[in-house]
């Protein structure tokens, strides 16, 4: 009998022959010339279930062949995404003799710069949305208040927990350890580490060893005059998270911020209308208690240790405050500009970085001490400060031989976990809770 040939989209590598699928056998043959009329072929009765396909005819509407060929791969990928990782390595330590990578690819930055330059040459004003035009984002004002309240609770809770949970810091490097005694892992990179064969010199730690203090200049008008090297002492240094919340809509007595009602206008990189320059309000004797609750300085003296019955509750509240700060800061940084130096830990909250010549890192002589500003990430504004996870704080100290079997966690999470808080699941893979610690003799036999 005559059976009209069915034409499907088939890869060019298939010319003649057969291709098997889950439902039927597809016969593939090459058509001579161009399809000028419907082509047929006589098939025996026993081959009525066969279909004739032509590799030259391409019809985008029928994708049954490709769907059948890749159906198994799609199901495998969908199952693979649902599987949670068992162990996760920490981000690699960036070399100090090299600039940090850009959060946005350099090609994308260049593309946006070319687009802005083209609009500027045509005299077209750049379209700016809040808060890029100096106006607050109403939806983020409650988030800023929530972050500031959580930041205050985080400092208060950590100050109480550190009276009970011992924390040690190395006097020669930035290593921090949360346990009854310091570990014996030989990874010190201090000035005299060669004499100690990499062992740390442990001293009693403070809250600044758990939360790395990150400060920024407070600006009355972030879109006003930039801070110069000669005028840097005219501005106060406050915690960077507090400055971000102030610019996002929080009002703190003694630290005013300009609230625009008319947007600024820009052509290219030039501001054509900023509503005029406004001098900072007449400096008054600042109330030292305005930022006292938001500063880690002297926090251990302000808050007493909690009662033993409330230890787990304080630890859980501190953990929740830490998660709230991290989530809120990430949400605020999606809208408000935060700059970080590509060579040193300096951070600036605002659309442009300051001009203070304070950078002393790699090749600062070539830059005359100026910072290499680029977009900041949350780990630069709110550093996690990873420490070794200790399963038994009162047990034997950690050793170098078992280093690869130990996990890590942010210092705040480790302190709260040892005080009785429940660790969020997203930290469990990096803490390596599913790995059984072998003996020192067995560790050498592990592949």
Automatic annotation (TrEMBL):
Domain APO: 169-254, 340-425
InterPro entries on file: APO_dom
Any one Gene Ontology molecular-function term assigned to this protein's record: RNA binding
Domain of life: Eukaryota
Name this protein carries in UniProt: APO domain-containing protein
Lineage, uppermost ranks: Eukaryota, Viridiplantae, Streptophyta, Embryophyta, Tracheophyta
